[in-house]
Amino acid sequence: MVENSPSPLPERAIYGFVLQLGSRFAFGLYLVWAYVPESWLHSVGLTYWPQKYWAVALPVYFLVTVAICYLLLFGINMMSTAPLNSVDTVLDTYAKSQQFKDFQEDAIPALMDIPISEVNRRFFLAPHLSECTANNHWLQ
After folding, report:
1. Which of 8, 25, 84, 95 could link 91 by a cystine bridge, Cβ 3.0 to 4.6 Å?
2. The pTM is what?
3. Is residue 95 pLDDT above 90, yes or no?
């Protein structure tokens, strides 16, 4: 019987340890390939290596790919968000009604929906940003 424990199973721990060792070995091999001159590698007998160009190009390609993925994710989220004049942002009688309770000064306020009119009022009609952030709750 498996106990409900946050610690990983022994098999997962072994796999993680082997993956950590393998990744450190691969990174060390990459550093040797990138920084040791080719004449030294040839003298040891290691003659078939990719060009040194790829030691710089692969990390750059990887970072550019990650940046493009973040931009695409941001764009997809922006396209998926309903516009402010959409019917999906309208509250009706079937929407969950908000119960406003007194809150403790140092506590996190309860989770609730903020009406879009209140969000627009706070972001775009507030005279000073400091007044908006000074309040710990959205509705006065």
Report:
1. 95
2. 0.53
3. no
In whole angstroms, what is the distance from residue 109 CA to residue 138 CA? Answer: 10
| pLDDT on residue 127 | 65
Q: How far apart are CA 78 and CA 95, in angstroms?
A: 24
Burial class (CB in 10 A: 0-12, 13-18, 19+), 41: middle
Name the residue with tokens 């993956």. 19
CA distances from 132 to 13, 34, 77, 124, 128 (A): 48, 53, 26, 11, 7
Task: Report helix, strand or coil for 34.
Answer: helix
Closest C-alpha to 50, from 65, 36, 34, 66: 34
